[in-house]
């Protein structure tokens, strides 16, 4: 068998975007590769199957999980072969391949561990004449999986179909190269807004419900903060440390021990900052090394304390050999107070506290509030799914009452929280691999459907503590069908709320009726989060008005100015999908910024007001479709771009105006002083003639002296203020120049093809945020460009090359900035020098320093103290926006 049987075809009509892709298939397959980005709900699987049919050769399909493997085979049989029976020429076993074989990446990797095993599998594959490989969800391949796949690809002469929802644009360049080596460059992308426009996905919106920790959790947070503060103050005032650090050779003679400084820049900086805090004189030689002309050293804070202690305890043994007992006592004290995580000192991060927040019991109240809100709005039309990580069977009582205190989040504790206050008789079900609970209202329908599925009727029993719900004796045969059976009941409305585990329902489950999803799952990758979210946003046949709300839960840390780890994780999660913002004129993008709350979240009343505001927006489902239509009309594709925010706490326009006004004022004062100084004698002459008063000579002398003093004072202020104002000119023009230099350098290096139509676009908004991207470049070329630009504006660590740029006014050096050369251009001197040459032509004066030699390392020390990039630390981010 060398071809698929005749007359196999997709039983439904193709969607517009699918049809367009298939019509261009011959062009895409000229290089024997078809690489497509397709989000959940786009019909990615059937598209891959159709491409496989058009290639019409023996095929091996790789998928990430067993459930998705089953889905591929099921979809092919039902939608193409029009049968539920799997033919003999389809296999799911890599050790027994057939004409069409579907296997998981893990099973293939396990079966080919040794060279002998690989040869055996390769021979079996060759025997079946496999000529087409399909890689599904190839973006999250583990490194060892990639190696085994590359080996099989190199041994076969195959066409490659690569399908993914989220390509790894944000990974290291080496990993991106591996990804492209396996899948080749991206041929096409299906966008979520296009799917909404085509009615394949429904209009939807993401919401965040905030909570504060419970009183017990808050006490734990407060206690940990008190411990952290106490230990920090002890370290800050530790006289033993003062005496030991004063004796360090590179502190006593920095010139002689420059090499030690270069090897340990962070520690060296922390030593200077710590000793300066104790009023220890810092010699001029140190300021020459760090390049701080003003001799201003930052205060000693927790970050610098972490740097200092990490080196003393874990890295700098040779400097503190005589402090063995001191170090041991210090380490034990830090351990006892919860300040050591994975052999690293942390005054702010504590895994126990983070875990308590992420799994906070306060989220049960959030879930209960969301359930009541959605039911009040949708009534019996509610089709809600709540996904979480654990079952928590300890909350399933066998007594006549269930009043167990709910202390941990899980399926059963969520069920109990809702059931105990279910005054409106919401129809709630539990669906997991080992516990299934259904509302009594669906018992008859459940029994009827079991008969339709040709399954023996199981033994049914009521919950001991609530006769409004029943369970049944599960067996293997029933378990294989139960998800489909209960999904049918859910679709028909006899169940309104399903509480389940992400392991059972998170991947591969299809229930288009879902119109509200609560993500109470806090473990796993962002890829899985996106897949779970994809369950709710599919359109539903026969329900053109369907909209969906997706709810995210966050417990805030009230003593952390950044709101804690749970908030941080949620923000990262939002980078993996796009949606509309809350405004009346919405736009489409990824990132948390689109739904960022307008008010502060520092106390309980702030959170209550924010949640009430969120509920108000979530209740306006009738406007959701119009909002999506409006947002989609504003663009034609998702553009990846970098956002570089204004570095100061004050607003951009306010700061710029402040320094502009100051410059203007001081310039006027300088001019007046100049007139008074140089025009004093003229003034005497004029006044003398007018008044004929000879004593005005003395007045003129006084005015002249006053003017010269004013010129000296205000002239100096004007110069300094003008220097600061230069920082706040239109920095988008700076980034346009820098971006152009980077583009031409990447074209010279070869990562981006030379094409005069590819240009840099840069603009800034009223807040001083610079937005930059490439126009007319491929998706991966733009991704390479943005990652490299992000490196340029990121904190300086240990770059291979350093760009030092200078701005001058007349004969004065106004400022000196430091930027790392991106790794992709730092591989060899030729590309580095090309970048410098382009910079000098288009941006301005600059020098290139190789940081592996003495001169370069010296400059690197200065850069770490004075880097312009540090202004943007951890703020520049790459986003996708519909334009």
From TrEMBL:
It comes from the Bacteria. Gene3D superfamilies: P-loop containing nucleotide triphosphate hydrolases (3.40.50.300). One of its GO terms (cellular component) is cytosol. One of its GO terms (molecular function) is ATP binding. Keywords: Membrane, Transmembrane, Transmembrane helix. The keyword Transferase does not apply. The chain crosses the membrane at residues 667-687, 699-719. Signal peptide: none annotated. Residues 25-185 form the Helicase ATP-binding domain. InterPro entries: Helicase/UvrB_N, Helicase_ATP-bd, Helicase_Restrict-Modif_Enz, P-loop_NTPase. This is Type III restriction enzyme, res subunit.
């Amino acid at each position: 068998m060398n071809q698929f049987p005749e007359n196999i075809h997709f039983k439904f009509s193709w969607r517009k975007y699918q049809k367009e892709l298939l019509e261009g298939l011959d062009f895409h397959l000229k290089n024997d590769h078809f690489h497509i980005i397709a989000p959940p709900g786009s019909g990615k699987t059937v598209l891959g199957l159709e491409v496989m049919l058009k290639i019409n050769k023996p095929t091996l399909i790789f998928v990430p999980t067993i459930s998705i493997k089953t889905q591929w085979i099921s979809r092919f049989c039902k939608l193409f072969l029009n049968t539920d029976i799997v033919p003999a020429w389809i296999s799911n076993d890599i050790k027994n391949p057939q004409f069409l074989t579907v296997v998981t990446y893990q099973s293939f990797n396990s079966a080919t561990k040794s060279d002998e095993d690989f040869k055996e599998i390769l021979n079996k594959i060759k025997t079946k004449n496999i000529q087409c490989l399909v890689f599904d969800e190839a973006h999250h391949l583990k490194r060892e999986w990639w190696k085994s796949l590359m080996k099989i690809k190199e041994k076969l002469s195959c066409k490659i179909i690569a399908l993914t929802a989220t390509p790894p644009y944000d990974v290291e360049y080496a990993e991106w190269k591996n990804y492209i080596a396996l899948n080749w460059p991206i041929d096409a992308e299906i966008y979520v807004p296009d799917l909404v426009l085509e009615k394949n996905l429904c209009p939807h919106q993401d919401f965040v419900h905030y909570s504060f920790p419970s009183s017990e959790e808050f006490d734990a947070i407060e206690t940990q903060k008190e411990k952290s503060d106490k230990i920090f103050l002890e370290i800050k005032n530790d006289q033993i440390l003062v005496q030991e650090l004063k004796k360090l050779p590179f502190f006593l003679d920095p010139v002689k021990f420059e090499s030690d400084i270069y090897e340990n820049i962070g520690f060296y900086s922390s030593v200077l900052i710590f000793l300066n805090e104790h009023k220890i004189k810092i010699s001029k030689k140190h300021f020459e090394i760090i390049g701080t002309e003003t001799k201003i050293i930052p205060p000693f804070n927790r970050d610098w304390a972490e740097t200092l202690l990490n080196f003393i305890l874990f890295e700098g043994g040779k400097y503190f050999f005589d402090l063995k007992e001191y170090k041991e006592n210090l380490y034990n004290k830090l351990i006892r107070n919860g300040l050591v995580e994975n052999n690293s000192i942390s005054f702010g991060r504590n895994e126990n506290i983070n875990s308590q927040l992420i799994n906070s019991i306060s989220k049960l109240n959030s879930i209960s509030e969301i359930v009541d809100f959605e039911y009040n709005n949708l009534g019996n039309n509610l089709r809600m799914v709540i996904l979480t990580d654990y079952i928590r069977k300890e909350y399933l009582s066998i007594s006549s009452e269930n009043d167990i205190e709910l202390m941990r989040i899980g399926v059963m504790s969520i069920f109990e929280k809702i059931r105990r206050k279910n005054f409106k008789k919401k129809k709630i079900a539990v669906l997991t691999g080992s516990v299934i609970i259904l509302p009594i209202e669906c018992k008859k329908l459940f029994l009827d459907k079991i008969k339709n599925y040709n399954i023996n009727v199981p033994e049914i029993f009521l919950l001991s503590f609530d006769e409004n719900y029943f369970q049944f004796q599960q067996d293997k045969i029933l378990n294989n069908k139960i998800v489909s059976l209960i999904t049918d009941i859910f679709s028909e409305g006899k169940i309104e709320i399903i509480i389940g585990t992400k392991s059972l329902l998170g991947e591969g489950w299809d229930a288009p009726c879902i119109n509200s999803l609560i993500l109470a799952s806090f473990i796993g990758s962002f890829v899985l989060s996106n897949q779970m979210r994809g369950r709710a946003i599919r359109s539903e046949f026969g329900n053109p008005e369907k909209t969906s709300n997706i709810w995210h839960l966050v417990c805030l840390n009230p003593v952390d100015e950044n709101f804690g780890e749970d908030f941080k994780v949620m923000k990262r999660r939002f980078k993996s999908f796009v949606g509309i913002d809350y405004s009346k004129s919405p736009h489409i993008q990824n990132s948390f910024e689109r739904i960022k709350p307008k008010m502060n979240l520092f106390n309980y009343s702030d959170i209550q007001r924010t949640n009430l505001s969120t509920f108000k927006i979530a209740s306006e489902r009738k406007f959701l479709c119009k909002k999506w239509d409006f947002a989609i009309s504003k663009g034609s594709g998702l553009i990846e771009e970098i956002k570089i925010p204004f570095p100061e706490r004050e607003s951009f326009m306010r700061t710029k105006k402040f320094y502009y006004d100051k410059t203007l004022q001081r310039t006027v004062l300088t001019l007046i002083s100049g007139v008074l100084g140089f025009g004093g004698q003229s003034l005497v002459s004029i006044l003398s003639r007018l008044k004929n008063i000879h004593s005005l000579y003395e007045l003129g002398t006084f005015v002249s002296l006053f003017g010269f003093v004013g010129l000296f004072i205000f002239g100096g202020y004007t110069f300094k203020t003008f220097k600061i104002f230069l920082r706040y000119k239109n920095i988008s023009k700076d980034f346009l120049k820098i971006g152009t230099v980077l583009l031409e350098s990447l074209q010279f290096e070869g990562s981006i093809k030379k094409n005069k139509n590819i240009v840099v676009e840069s603009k800034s908004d009223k807040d001083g945020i610079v937005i930059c991207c490439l126009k007319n470049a491929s998706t991966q070329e733009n991704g390479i460009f943005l990652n490299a630009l992000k490196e340029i504006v990121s904190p300086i660590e240990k770059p291979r090359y350093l760009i030092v740029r200078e701005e001058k006014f007349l004969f004065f050096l106004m400022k000196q900035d430091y930027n790392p050369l991106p790794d992709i251009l730092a591989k060899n001197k030729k590309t580095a020098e090309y970048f410098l040459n382009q910079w000098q032509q288009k941006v301005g004066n600059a020098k290139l320093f190789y940081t592996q030699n003495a001169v370069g390392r010296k400059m690197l020390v200065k850069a770490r103290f004075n880097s312009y990039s540090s202004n943007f630390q951890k703020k520049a981010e790459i986003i996708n926006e519909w334009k």
